[in-house]
Amino acid sequence: MDKIRILLAEDDENLGTLLKEYLQAKGYETDLYPDGSHAYKGFITDHYDLCLLDIMMPVKDGFTLAREIRQLNSDIPIIFLTAKSMKEDVFEGFRIGADDYITKPFSMEELLFRIEAILRRTKSGQVENQDQFKIGKYLFDANKQELTFGNQVQKMTTKESELLRLLCNNKNKILERNFALRTIWMDDNYFNARSMDVYITKLRKYLKEDPSVEIINIHGKGYKLIC
Fold first, then answer.
1. What residue ranges in 172-227 does DSSP mark as E strands?
2. Where are the chain's structural domains?
3. How far apart (Å, rounded) are the C-alpha atoms in residues 140 and 111?
4. What CATH number has the domain spanning 5-126?
5. Rounded to 5 degrees, what are φ and ψ at 117?
6. Which of 36, 41, 43, 154 is most buried (CB neighbours < 10 A)?
7. Residue 63 three-state SS
8. Are 194 and 177 in contact (CB under 8 A)?
């Protein structure tokens, strides 16, 4: 079985080297790039299964790099490494399509846990039987992470797809907020809760072409997909 390959973009040479050596010791092939520009060139020329991106980098920052990566591959998991705990940074990361973020300083064990959790979700989705859902006039393929309306196909990120799958599995019933947070984000803290609100807004935008489809807020409880 091929090893998981990780693209690591980190301009702090000491931290980057430490992370690379730790991840390689845990069995992950890891390539370290000192800035977003070099990382993007590496992404184009090589194959990776997951990206770890520092936000504050010279030449090209992590947000810009993530947007460019998402244009080439909407499925690859992205984790942001950030020294800032500003809410705006976290929300911006999830708007771009990040799967997770971790704030410096962090423990290596926590980072490894987050990587393994994301890989379990993404890899398990690839081996499950195909799951397709009819949402009004839309067809949602959870394994391909595609939402189809007529001849229009919307590619979705892993978290968007996981959240819509949960809503579909609870169609016309309440999807409890804390259950969704623990299932997808592994934690129901404030930042993750606000991030899920961002994803709900994105899903509503994807589904707006069919007026019979609606994701409504159930105050104090969660969300309900009506169709």
1. 174-176, 214-218, 222-226
2. 5-126, 129-226
3. 31
4. 3.40.50.2300
5. -65, -45
6. 36
7. helix
8. no
Residue corresponding to tokens 């730790």: 22
Tokens of 49: 């299964």
pTM: 0.58
Binned at pLDDT 50, 70 and 90, residue 85 comes out as: low
Please calculate the CA angle 195-198-203 and round it to the nearest 5 degrees. 130
Tell me the pLDDT tens digit for each residue of 48-77: 999 999 999 999 999 999 999 988 888 899
Task: Tokens for 113, please give them.
Answer: 């846990």
129-226 sits in which CATH class? mainly alpha
Measured CA to CA in angstroms, residue 103 lies from 43, 150, 181 at distances of 24, 41, 19
Q: How far apart are CA 15 and CA 9, in angstroms?
A: 11
In the structure, what pLDDT confidence band is assigned to residue 205 with cuts at 50, 70 and 90?
very high
Question: How distant, in Å, are the alpha carbons of 2, 59, 95, 192, 196 from that of 90?
Answer: 32, 21, 9, 9, 11
- In the numeric block, the tokens 């030449």 are attached to 59
Q: What is the DSSP string of the chain?
A: -PPPEEEEE-S-HHHHHHHHHHHHHTT-EEEEESSHHHHHHHHHHS--SEEEEESS-SSS-HHHHHHHHHHH-SSS-EEEEES---HHHHHHHHHHT-SEEEESS--HHHHHHHHHHHHHHHHHHHHSPP-EEEETTEEEETTTTEEEETTEEEE--HHHHHHHHHHHHTTTSEEEHHHHIIIIIS---HHHHHHHHHHHHHHHHHTTT-TT-EEEEETTTEEEEE-
